[in-house]
Structure formats: C-alpha cells, structure tokens
Design a protein that fits this description.
The chain is mainly alpha-helical and 329 residues long. Helix content is 66%, strand content 0%. It folds into two domains: 51 residues, no CATH class; 210 residues, MetI-like (MetI-like fold, Orthogonal Bundle). Helix 7 packs across helix 12.
C-alpha cells in the first residue's frame, strides 16, 4: 500500500464517500487559514454583525404572520392564530386582483424590458464614434438617477389633457379629443411597463457593455476575413459571450415576478386606475400601514417571498440545463 493510500485510510487526507472532506477536517483547515490571514479575515466581522442585527434577527418578526398582532401587543404577547391569516388571503378577491396585475405588468416587463437593454447595449457597443458613444450612454443612464417622484410628476404632466402627449397626438390627428391617459385603467399596464423601461434600460446595459469589452477582438477580425456580416458577428460572437450574464439577469428577473415597483405604483396609481394599478407590494403597504392589519400584510409578504425563492431555484435549474449544467449563481 502506497503512502497516499495509508494517509487516506488513516484519516490524514480522508475524503467522505460523497467526495467532500469531513467536517472536522474542514473546520481545522478554516482555523489554520484564519490564523494565517487574521488581519484580512477580521475585516469581514463588522459586515457579519451588521447582517445578523439587521437581516437575521428581524426574521423573528415573521411570526406575526401566524398571530393576531395589533399595535397594543408585542411579538411575545400577540395571540397565535395558526394559518388563519393565510386562509383569509386565499379567499380575498382584492389580493388576487393584485396578483393578476402584478403578473401582468411583470410579464410585460420581462418580455419587453429584458430584451431592450441587450439590444441597446449591442447598439452602443457597435458605435464607432467614441464621443457619440459616451453621449448616448450618458443620456440613457440619466433617468435611472431620477426618483420616481420626479419621473412620476413628469408623466402625470405629460399625460394630462393639456400635456405634451395629448398635444402631440392632436397635432398628428391620431385623436380628436384630449384625454387623461393615466385615468384610463386599461392602459396602465403599458404605461407602467414602458415608463419602467425608459427609466432603467440604459442602466441595464452596464453589465452587458462590461462583458462585451472583454471579448477578444481577434474573433471579430477572423469573422470579417471569413466574410461574416455584422449581424452574423453579433449572433455568433457577441451573444454567445454574453450568455452567462444574460442567464444571471434572467434568473433574477424571474425570481422578482411577484415584486413590482412600489414607488412607481404609489406615484402613478389613482382612484380611476386602481383596479389595474394595484400590485402586491402596494396592497401589502396599504393593508399594513394604512389599515393597520400587520399580521395579514406579513402573511402576504411571507407567501410572496417563499414563491420568489421557488422561482429563483427553478429558473436557476432551467438556465443551468441550457448552459451545459453549469449554474451562474
């Protein structure tokens, strides 16, 4: 028996049947590594403490979802009601209306808003003029840095009967009478989708442009020699090299299907379009903060979080299958 076999059998370099080292050995190796780099390793301790205080300890508050909590109670004294809050959710018509609105807006954003940053990034990357490229990037990034309070006020003004949008349609002869578009509930999904794309599309190109900047230019030179057109180069070189970041963004987007933009909703929603504008986040906010039903709002939030995790894992599994069983997370 050789030396390696002896060491393995005696436990010095023992490996468990599943291919992993025993826990005790991994702990010892961690301690050794920590002692060797204790100055650097210690820098992460404040971050760990911060996460424990503000991320993990508040998890105890999720018990409110299983209690009948009021403002005169504490987390310990509030009476337990089991799954009663979740049963109320399942029979709540207004909650399911909010779910439909959330999914409708989210799928529109997924179908349109996910593709546009990729197209915009490729178009910016293909620009030859450096100054013009920087100008386009700056203009496309700018809306991201404006709050929804500012952008919402602009949209409310533009969509009013005397606003820019109505005046433009009147001058083109598209409409004969001005109308306040934000008061039309049937158009709200498109308003929410397109305004979100306007705000975030430019910012969404940053990761794609960073990836494209790392692509070896010799690939394009070889493709030109072979007679490949610019579109063929994009299809066969640019997009395949962006596959990992596209997959990552797709996973994160799918996991957030039930989480619509609360700021956007609160700014653009009014009494006339509420039927189509109310989303899960605004519904939770209204039930918890406005009506004081904290247990119900917490139960909704907990259910949405669980479903979001399931969507995240499912999307990761599907994309890993499409990427030769390599996960991007």
């Amino acid at each position: 028996m050789d030396k390696l076999a002896v060491e393995t059998s005696t436990g010095k370099n023992a490996i468990s049947p599943n291919g992993k080292k025993p826990i005790g050995q991994r702990v010892k190796e961690f301690i050794v590594d920590y002692r060797r780099q204790w100055e650097i390793q210690s820098m992460i301790i404040p971050g760990i403490i911060f996460m424990i205080i503000f991320c993990y300890i508040p998890i105890y508050g999720l018990t409110i979802a299983f209690k009948n909590y009021t403002v005169i109670d504490t987390l310990a004294t509030a009476p337990w009601v089991g799954l009663d809050n979740f049963r109320i959710i399942l029979s709540d018509k207004y909650f399911w209306d909010a779910v439909v609105n959330t999914l409708g807006i989210s799928f529109l954003k997924l179908g349109i808003g996910f593709v546009i940053p990729i197209i915009l990034a490729i178009m910016i990357y293909e620009l030859n003029s450096g100054r013009f490229k920087k100008f386009v990037q700056t203009v496309s990034y700018l809306p991201h840095f404006l709050s929804w309070i500012v952008l919402g006020g602009m949209l409310i003004t533009w969509f009013s009967t005397t606003g820019l949008f109505n005046q433009l349609l009147l001058s083109l002869g598209v409409i004969s009478q001005p109308q306040n578009i934000l008061l039309d509930a049937g158009k709200y999904w498109w308003i929410a989708t397109l305004s979100d794309i306007w705000k975030e599309a430019g910012w969404g190109t940053i990761l794609y442009l960073a990836i494209m900047a790392k692509i070896d230019p010799t690939y394009y030179e070889a493709a030109k020699i072979d007679g490949a057109s610019r579109l063929r180069q994009i299809w066969n070189i640019t997009l395949p090299n962006m596959k990992s970041i596209i997959s990552l963004n797709l996973i994160l987007t799918v996991s957030g299907l039930l989480g619509s933009n609360l700021d956007q909703t609160l700014v653009l929603m009014n009494s006339q379009n509420r039927d189509k504008a109310e989303v899960i986040n605004s519904y939770v906010y209204r039930m918890g903060m406005s009506q004081g039903d904290f247990s119900y709002a917490t139960a909704v939030g907990l259910g949405v979080s669980i479903i979001s995790v399931i969507l995240l894992v499912t999307a990761n599994k599907i994309t890993s299958k499409l990427n030769d069983n390599q996960s991007v997370l």
